[in-house]
Every structure is written in C-alpha cells, then in structure tokens.
UniProtKB/TrEMBL annotation:
The DYW domain, residue ranges: 773-865
Region (Disordered), start-end ranges: 1-20
Compositional bias (Pro residues): 8-20
Repeat region (PPR), residues: 121-155, 230-264, 334-368, 436-470, 556-590, 592-627
Protein name: DYW domain-containing protein
Superkingdom of source: Eukaryota
Family matches, as PROSITE patterns: PPR
GO biological process: RNA modification
Length: 865
C-alpha cells in the first residue's frame, strides 16, 4: 500500500513535475528560503513512496518552523517515528524537530521529545537551551547547561550565546553572568576570529546594568583585533551604551572608531543616531548625516534613513525628517522607514500627517503594516478629530492577526482610555498574559488621563502584588511554570502618578511616591525628579519642590521650566526671574518657548511689567525663541493686569487675525473685567464669541463686567445668549486631602457626609468675620437679586466649605491646603484673608491660575491676580 502523503498546509505541487523531487530538492529549497516549496517537495516524496531519510526531514522541519506551521511539524514527526528515523547514529532529525516545535510555540512537545531521545549530542542540548530561552525560562536553561556539562558534551560559542542571554535576564543575581564569563575564558570559548560570543558577553553585562564592566571588556580588545574583526564589536558597544542611556559615551566610541580607521556601516549609524535624539544633539546628528551622504552605500541604506528620520523627528525637526523620507525612492522604502515617519508625525502631534503616511504605505508601496506601525499610528487615531473610524482600527488589527501582540494591545488600551472607554481598556488589559510593567503603566496612565486617580493608585497596589507567591509557588516559578513574573513600579509609573497627585493637590500621596523613588534609587532620574518638583509645587509645598530641584544631579529644560512656573504661580516673580537668569548663565539647558511662558506669567502675576516686556522683546534676539501666539498672550496679560489696556489692545491687533488670537483676547477680556472697562470688554468678548462660541468663560466674564457696572439688563442678555447656544458654566468645585482621602465640595451642596457640620461651622465663621468688619463682595453674584440673597449664595461657595472642613478636621496650627477647578472669586479671596487672621492658620488656596498663600490676613498675591 502506498504511503500516505504528509498533510502539509502549503499549496499543492504542480500535477506533472518534469523532475521528481528528491531529498536534495528539499534541502536546496530550504536553503534558498522557499519554505512552502520545500514542504510541497516533501509531500510529493511521501506520495510517491520515495524514501524519506535523515537528509530530507531536518531541512523540512526547518521550513515548517520558518512557516510557523505546527501541523506540518507534527506530520514530519509522525513520518520520522514510522520510519524509525529518531534512532540512529546521530540525532539530527530529533534535533531539528525539537527546534521546530519550540519555534512553533509548543514547548511541551519539544521537552517531551527531548526526554524521549535515546541519544543526545551537543546540538541537542544547544537546541534545548535555545528553546527554553525563547520561552524566557532562564533558570531551566541554565539547568540544561549543567546537564550538558555532566553528560560530557563539548560546549561551543553557540552554547555560550544562549547561556549569556539567560544570564542577562537574571539581574537579581549577576553572579550567574560572571560565572559564565569565567567559564568561557577557562574553556577558550572567546578565542578565535568569530566575535559573536564576545559581543553577546558585552550585551549581557549591559542588560545586567554593569555597563562599566562592558566597557572594561571592550577595552581588552587590542587595536589589531578592532581593525581585523571588529565593526560588529564596535557596533555592539555603541548600541550597548545607547540602550543604557550613556549616549555621550556612545558618540565618543563612534568618533574613536572612525579615528582608528574602522569604517562604520549601516548598523553603526542605526545604533548611534538614537543617541543624538536622547541628548538633543542635533548638531552631532547632522554631522553623522553629512558622513552618510558622502558614502553612496550608506546613503542608500533604508535602515540608516529610518534612524535619520527618527533622529530629526525626536529633535522636533519633522520637516527635515520628511525630506529625508522623500529622498528615498518609493520602491526602496523598507517597513522601518515607513514606521519611523508614521511615529515621527504621531509623536509631534501631527496626527493627520501620520494617518496619511499610514494610508500610503500599503496603497502606494504595497508595504504591509507591522505591529510597530500599529503601535505608532493608534495614538494618532485616538487624538485626531478628523478621523472618525477610531474603533474600526481595532477591527483592522484583528483582521491583520495582530491582536495578541503586546505592543499593539498596549496601544489599543491607550486609544480606548483617551476615548474615555476605560471598560474596553480594562478588557484588553485582562487579555494580556503575562502583565508587564508597560501594560500596567498604560492602564494606570489611562486612569490618570480620565481623572480616575484613586483607581490609578489601586492599580499600582495590584501591580506590586503580581507575582507574590508562597514558597511552593516560588519553586514552580524557578521551574518555569509561573505565569507572571513580579513587576515593580518603575520611573514611568512614578512619572504617571505624580501629575495626578499634583492635580488633586494630594501632597501626602506624593510624599509616599517620593519615598518609594528614594528607596529604589529612582529619585535621581531627571524625568522623575522633574515630576517631583512639579508635584510638590502644585501641592503648595514650594520649599520641598526647591529641595528636590537642588538635589538633582542633572536637570533638563523641563526641570527648570517647572520650578520657574511654580515660583510664578506662587506669586514669587522675583525668585522666578532670578532662577531664569541662573538657567541662562548655567548653560545646563537652553530656554525654550515654555520657559518664556513661565517667566512672563511670573512677571504678570507679580506686577513686574518692565522686566516682562524686556523679556518679550529680547527672547528672539538673545535666545532664538520666536514670539508665538501664546507668548503674545502673555505680553497682553502683563499689560492688561497693569491697566495698560490700550497697549495690550495694540499687541493683539499686531497679530494676524484668526484662532491664534484666542489666548490673547481671553487674557484681554480678563483684564477688562479686572479694570471694569465695558467698552473694550465688549470688543474682546465679541471677537471671542466668533472664535470660540461654545466657551462658557467668555460669557461669564462679559456678564461679570456688566454686573460690576450695574448693567443688569445687558448681563441678563449675555446669560440668555448662553442658554440659547446651550453653553453652560462649569460648576465650581473645591477639594482638600485629609488622611489620604480626597474630600470634594460644590457650592451650596449637601452631599458630603459631614455637610451639616461643615455648613454650621461656616455659619459661625461668617458671623465672626462680619463682626470683625468683613463685608461680602456681592459683585461676584451675577443674578439680579436682593443683596441679602447674594450674601447667602456667597456664604457657601465651594472653597469656603473646603476651608471650613479643613479647620474642623486638622489639628490647631496645621496648614490648610485647598484646590479649586476655577478662578477664586473676589469674595472668597477676601474671606480667606479674614479667616487666616481669625484662626491663626496659613491657608494655601490653589485656583486654576495660581496659588494664594493667606497668612495673618494677607495674601501672597498682594491682591493682584
């Protein structure tokens, strides 16, 4: 009876082949990378009852593995069993099947095959160790190495590469890596011309965080070795330093490489250019670009072009990145280049451009998007208002078979979180196995973005519980059977949580995070340090904010900007400008647009008109910062608060008309309210009604201006206009953190559990204030009602209730810290001054614009806000 053909999944072979396939045919097709044809040839051999031998099945198993076809691997295994090909002088067939099972995702089958093998050689153990590493079973991989040594099999450089990979993931005990290094030296595994084992050793030390050890190892390479065999070694060292964040050293190694006469290749520049992105060294990146352009091979290298696009985009030169992209012919653009351009646009917030490139890559170049493409374009899909099919992108991901990819899952989580669908984000999170730090951080970020701060902290607690197990479960984990590894909050986790503490003015929670950062040596990270400076500043703890700033070993422009902004918000304009001057003198960071916004805002809040105007007029000349619409708005705010409305009006008119004037007109309208200028206020409001007809604050400010002038009919008309357009004013809300809980209050509300007690205490404070000369500022009430009714409304404003609650629940002398979602009204500002003097407490009130420190009847803003 004829043998049953192997049921491989590739297309059938031609009906009448001119030359019947042989074992040599299978081998040659596999070697050529035509894996589907190799399996067809094997199937034809089986159907023709031709002999299937030890020469045909190993290459066929390799082809099945390349196609990730587990059914084909099982069929080949069955054929080997029927023909007794697993026994014999060499285990070549079994070795090939072991590797194929692992690469097709069936590790249990690979382990069962290994256990059943009567004869094993060095290749068998190399295949087993590689398979265990593929599934991240690092300790079992080292156990297999011990068995290999005990059975007396020779170790090769191939063995060492897999072993070093396993050791590099055991960061809690670097002893394993050092022992592997010593073993390699003892047995001469690093000798010879082949450098890949040496390069793997460099990478291992870097992954273990022992970058200095990697540099010392690299230094043992002699000059002759470096020239004779080493562009790959040099590339490895450059890559190691970049991935370890030591980008300056990476650039030095590249310069040294060129100086020694080693010619950089495409991999060199693809590894080195990211250093220019991280260091913001655009000039060095341009030098590398110039070197590339002088070499035709490098200039035509798509991987180098990808790195250049990424470097320019990371340095906020997306226009140059696009020119590099366009210089590469469409037919030569590899997937990585398309991905770099999509991600460059997305990271720059140019979402429509990112989507346009994404659409073109498949339509024009027939380049199939990868998981990296989708992870890059999904944030643009979420943000783009012009793109309506946001959820449909999830369907596209499913259609492309990418739904199980971790990077795509994280991007989908982020997209749904930005859309406000946290249930969908949590469902995707639940499907990820195992959860790693990135997936946890993505969901935590989603909660923070949606204002679900308590949920975010709960997720961090759950994150730290993952992987905690009993001694028995720990034994399973060592054996490779644990599903999830322990995950610790990292610098990204802290950077995500700290802004949430700042938004809530929850300094106690922020201090807990700070303590964690100190215990885990994360507080010296410049991004975490900047977030801590910002958190303490927004929580009203300016002294702690400055202390963190001063202790940082390195500061970037964000760190400086945060503290300058903080001083301005706290009304300390002189300190803000002193810090700005120190920043310029230190040359540690170059002032940018945000720096000048912070400095000008500080001048505005502190009445430093002349210095503010001096900065505005000198920023382009002295610092190369263009006067953007936001900076014009700052200048308008400075002049407007000082009552120089005509000059402010002239600055607005000097700007081009359109949406870019919104911030300037808004600042000008606020100044008109402050100085009760009805005529100019009407002009500003009408411009804003044209540009932002659905923004409630514009209507409220104009109504305030009319009310303060006693023009009640016009004030009523503005409110009527709001109702007709369906525009509603955001209700005032104030909150205070006590004992780790956030207590919120709305004007006049009675929802809080202690509302009755709070209202009674506020009544008592009200009577005491009235007795000491306090008079309610009823101009803050927009309704045309009796004065007594206005005073009754003012009594229970949200910030007053929060202050009263704080006085009830905190010990005598403790500082009261309250935050509000809107600008504090004149009456509450005056009341807080009276209360601070009556009870002998400092009251820190943060509104949407700035901080107010009330001490002994005076405010830090000097009543100028």
């Amino acid at each position: 009876m004829a043998a049953t053909p192997l049921p491989v999944t590739s297309p059938p072979s031609p009906p009448h082949p001119l030359h019947p396939p042989t074992a040599a045919t299978v081998r040659s097709l596999t070697a050529a990378g035509d894996h589907a044809a190799a399996l067809r040839a094997l199937s034809s051999l089986s159907a023709a009852a031709a002999p299937l031998d030890r020469f045909a099945l190993p290459p066929a198993a390799k082809s099945a593995a390349a196609l990730r076809s587990l059914p084909a691997v099982r069929s080949i295994h069955g054929a080997a069993l029927r023909r007794d090909l697993l026994d014999g002088p060499t285990p070549a067939v079994a070795n090939a099947l072991l590797t194929a099972y692992a690469r097709c995702g069936d590790l249990p089958a690979a382990l069962a095959l290994f256990a059943a093998m009567p004869g094993r050689d060095a290749v068998t153990f190399n295949s087993l160790i590689s398979a265990l590493c593929l599934f991240r079973h690092w300790l079992p991989a080292l156990g297999a190495l011990r068995d290999m040594v005990l059975e007396g099999h020779p170790l090769t450089s191939f063995t060492l590469v897999s072993v070093l990979l396993a050791c590099s993931h055991l960061a809690d005990d670097p002893r394993f890596g050092r022992e592997a290094h010593a073993f390699a030296l003892k047995h001469g595994l690093l000798d010879g011309d082949e450098r890949f084992a040496f390069n793997a050793l460099l990478s291992m030390y870097a992954r273990l965080g022992l970058v200095d050890d990697a540099r010392r190892l690299f230094g043992t390479v002699g000059a002759d070795d470096a020239l004779g065999g080493g562009v790959v070694t040099w590339n490895t060292m450059v890559s190691v330093l970049v991935q370890s964040g030591r980008c300056g050293e990476a650039v030095e190694v590249l310069y040294d490489m060129v100086a020694r006469g080693v010619r950089p290749d495409g991999v060199t520049f693809a590894s080195a250019l990211p250093a220019c992105s991280q260091l913001e060294m655009l000039s060095v990146g341009r030098e590398m670009h110039a070197y590339v352009l002088k070499d035709a091979d490098l200039a035509a290298n798509s991987f180098v072009a990808s790195a250049l696009v990424d470097m320019y985009a990371s340095n906020e030169r997306v226009d140059v990145a696009r020119r590099v992209f366009d210089m590469v012919p469409v037919g030569d653009r590899q997937l990585g280049l398309w991905n770099a351009m999509v991600c460059g646009y997305a990271q720059a917030g140019m979402d429509e451009d990112a989507l346009e490139i994404f659409a073109r890559m498949e339509a024009e170049a027939s380049v199939i998007p990868s998981e990296t493409t989708m992870a890059g374009v999904l944030p643009a899909c979420a943000r783009s208002e012009a793109f309506a099919g946001k959820e449909a992108v999830h369907g596209y991901v499913l259609k492309r078979g990418m739904a199980d990819n971790r990077f795509v899952q994280n991007a989908l989580m982020d997209m749904y979180a930005r859309l406000g669908d946290m249930d969908a984000a949590r469902r995707i999170f639940a499907a990820i196995e195992p959860h790693d730090a990135v997936s946890w951080n993505t969901l935590i970020t989603g909660c923070v973005v949606q204002g679900q701060i308590s949920d975010a902290f709960q997720l961090v607690r759950e994150m730290q519980q993952q992987g905690r197990c009993t001694d028995a479960a720990m034994e399973d984990a060592i054996a490779g059977a644990a599903d999830e590894e322990p995950v610790k909050p990292n610098n990204i986790t802290l950077m995500t949580l700290l802004p949430g503490c700042g938004m809530l003015a929850a300094a106690e929670r922020g201090k807990e995070i700070h303590g964690y950062a100190v215990r885990h040596a994360l507080d010296s990270d410049v991004a975490v340090g900047s977030a801590l400076v910002d958190m303490y500043a927004k929580g009203g703890c300016l002294a702690l904010s400055r202390a963190v700033f001063d202790r940082l070993p390195r500061r970037n422009v964000i760190t400086w900007n945060v503290l300058i902004m903080a001083y301005g918000m706290h009304g300390l304009g002189d300190k803000a400008i002193a810090l700005f001057d120190r920043m310029v003198a230190s040359d540690e960071a170059k002032p940018n647009e945000v720096t000048f916004i912070a400095a000008l805002a500080a001048c505005s809040h502190s009445g430093m008109v002349d210095r503010g105007l001096e900065l505005f007029h000198s920023m382009k000349r002295d610092h190369g910062v263009e006067p953007t619409p936001d900076l014009h708005a700052c200048a308008v705010d400075i002049l407007g608060r000082a009552g120089r409305l005509d000059e402010a009006y002239n600055i607005i008119n000097s700007m081009g008309p359109g949406e870019q004037q919104v911030s300037a007109w808004s600042s000008f309208l606020g100044a008109c309210r402050l100085h009760r200028n009805v005529e100019l206020g009407e002009i500003a409001a009408e411009r804003l009604f044209e540009l932002e007809p659905d923004e409630a604050s514009h209507y409220v400010l104009l109504s305030n201006i009319y009310s303060a002038a006693g023009l009640w009919e016009k004030s009523s008309e503005v409110r009527s206009r709001m109702r007709q357009r369906g525009v509603s004013k955001e209700p005032g809300c104030s909150w205070i953190e006590l004992d780790g809980a956030i207590h919120r209050f709305m004007a006049g509300e009675s929802v809080h559990p202690e509302s009755a007690l709070v209202h009674a205490h506020m009544d008592a404070l009200w009577e005491r204030m009235r007795g000491q000369g306090y008079k309610p500022d009823t101009s803050c009430v927009l309704h045309d009602i009796e004065e007594g009714e206005k005073a009754a409304i003012l009594r229970y404003h949200s910030e007053k209730l929060a202050i009263a609650f704080g006085l009830l629940r905190t010990p005598p002398g403790a500082t009261i810290r309250v935050a509000k979602n809107l600008r504090v009204c004149n009456d509450c500002h005056e009341a807080a001054k009276f209360i601070s003097r009556m009870v002998g407490r400092e009251i820190v009130l943060r509104d949407v614009r700035r901080f107010h420190h009330f001490v002994d009847g005076a405010c830090s803003c000097g009543d100028y806000w």
